[in-house]
Amino acid sequence: MVRALFTLLMVVFLTFSYEMKLKKVDKDIYMVRGEDALPSLKNGGFISNAFAVYTEEGWVVIDTLSTPELSEKFLKELLKVKKAPIKYAIITHYHPDHWYGAKTFKDAKAKIVAHKKLKELYDSGEAKAILEEANRSFNGLYDSVVLVPPDIVVEDKVRLKAGSRTFDIISMTPAHTNSDIVVYMPDRKVLFAGDLV
Question: Which of 5, 48, 75, 174 has a CA 20 to 30 Å removed from the CA of 82?
Fold first, then answer.
């Protein structure tokens, strides 16, 4: 019995051994930071950063991590800080570590915001093929991912309001990908740059 329990604990440890810690980086701005590595079953695909800004109307999330499991952990951490609705989930570009956790936030009634090219990728069916290939390449890491398209599409620039906060979402293509956007808070002079820096 002890050996079976030890084996089970080792499997859990080896399956996902990277801890997610929510950090407050500024007034009402929080982040989680992934491991500096390639995605793997061991790190659960937790290889990128995601941010959230608390406003009087609820949370604005910037990037949704690689899997529903990660985005659910992120959401739970945010709700420990403040139980509030998720107003927007903004995807800075189409790569898995920024987009594949979006369904968690869609299910939480957030409006998904992304570049027009990400929507085109989704609508064409190419995104599904990319997901299937990534899942094969990374040994089933993305088995639970369900892709969701954006509700709000950015072609050049979109301004969103949430409470007293303003978020300017600005296209930066072509750059790291053909779907890069940055999120700028003019009142705070804070820029969320995705993978552009």
Answer: 48
